[in-house]
Amino acid sequence: MLVNCTFQSMSLPNLTPEISSLKLYRTDGTEISKDDTVRVGEEVEVRCTIRNANANSQSDTFKERYNMHMKLVDVEGHPTLGIEPVPGTTITLRNEAGKLIDNSQSTDTFAPGTDGYFLELVGTESRTVSYRARIVGAQGGAVTLSQQLIEDSFQGSQYATVELVDEHPLTPGDGTGSGVPGRDWHYTRLPLANENGWNTSPVTVTFYPGDYDGMEWAPSEGAAKSLTGAGSAWERMPDTAGIDLSAQARNTSTGAVSVQKAGKVKIDTSAPRIEDGGALGYTLTDVPADASSATSGVWRLHRTDKAGSASVARASAGEWPREFPLDGAEGDRRGEATQAVGKLPNGYYRVEDAAGNLTPADAMLKVGDTDPPSVERPDPAGPNPPEQAGPELDPSDPVPAPTVTEDGEGLRHAVIEETVTEMIDPAAPPFGGL
Fold first, then answer.
1. In contact, 280 and 342? CB cutoff 8 Å
2. From the CB of residue 355, how many other CB atoms can be counted at a distance below 10 Å?
3. CA 176, 181, 186, 189 torsion-angle sign
4. Which long-range contacts (CB under 8 A, 24 or more apart) does 392-397 make?
5. What percent of the chain has pLDDT over 70?
6. What is the pLDDT of residue 374?
7. b/e 39-77 (16+ beta carbons within 10 angstroms → b)
8. What does the pLDDT average to over 291-318?
9. How far apart are CA 119 and CA 121, in angstroms?
10. Contact 344, 320 (CB under 8 A)
11. Are 249 and 261 in contact (CB under 8 A)?
12. Which of 55-64, 133-142, 161-170, 302-311 comes out lowest in average pLDDT?
């Protein structure tokens, strides 16, 4: 007899791998809680429990055995942050009673990119895996560990991702005063920078104690400063094209150290100008009269009314006669020091630089060198005489002088009013009527 068969599927119905009790311990055996502080470079011990959670994997007469590998992973959805195994660390395996299990046949490690650490799941017996690791990354950052348990035959796996230590944030306030200072936010940097990262006035950084009792403020220009009490502040007054800032807070009683904050202060207090270039038109410039002042660069040209106010409708729609591109990443942008714009139509104009400074209203440009067109009465005897409507006018009568007015946006308008007197024949009035 010849029997033909086709293999369709195979499964491991009695295998439910589980990773639990993933925790950190200090070298003295003290457990590290989520709100504890760990130092960068500090060595810790990682412990976790693994088992086959499927009750059908054992009975009174047998225990199913499964070959597994366990390893550290850092993949999308399962990140490992702020911790790494100590190179060459010894991985230990203990049974439920805490007795060391000889697992010398495993020469693998938890290092990323390796196959992982070999172990065997027996029935529902739990195993404790422990190894040395080191805190890495930024001081005050979160410590998150992801481990994966893989079945050797079919490569099915189970992940466990746990945030073992919370981040110690350093939060800036927005200047509104909402929330609790020292807890919901720890310092303010006011005024806030505009969308391009610039200020038009001096900048003050103020620390508020609470979660932390001190903050180290380190600018790239000038001396560092320790901000320790309520109202303790750092101030920058002169213009600057950019000072890099670094801040980190600490609580001396608990040992908590915050994440490090980085930022930048850019101050431009000088207003841009519009210069007349004669026949070439106009040039917009943000080059300050004082060479020590910063230049944020030309950004926008506004057409305004005679009071210097831009049209609300145009401004709300984001429409300007000209807007110039800015260089740099978002929040750190600047424009060209000068921009040529050629001739401009009649009106009032102000320039805005990348910091938000506007040409003062008393120094804005008024363009009014374009007069309304002159008016001439058409000649009835000319080559293209107009169709006559009414009696002929005496060619010797001059066209009345126009009344010239200027509107709120600087446009000039000429209005000519002329009176025509005509004798009406009551018997046959032109155009009908009485």
1. yes
2. 29
3. positive
4. 393/420
5. 89
6. 74
7. eeeeebbbbbbbbbebeebbeeeeebebebbbbbbeeee
8. 77
9. 7
10. no
11. no
12. 302-311
Quick one: pLDDT at residue 318? 56
Q: Which of 66-70, 145-149, 317-321 has the lowest mean pLDDT?
A: 317-321
Q: Which tokens sit at 188?
A: 């303010």
- How many residues are there in the chain? 434
| Whole-number Å distance between alpha carbons of 17 and 116 | 16
Residue 17 confidence (pLDDT) = 93
Tens digits of residue pLDDT in 365-389: 988 766 777 776 666 677 777 666 5
Which amino acid, one-letter code, is at 119? Answer: L
pLDDT of residue 236: 93
pLDDT digits (tens, 9 = 90+) for 135-192: 998 888 899 999 999 998 888 889 999 999 988 999 999 889 888 999 999 999 999 9
- ∠ CA 278-280-285, nearest 5°, is 85
User: What residues does 323 pair with on adjacent strands?
Assistant: 300
Q: Using 50, 70 and 90 to split pLDDT, how confident is the model at 230? A: low
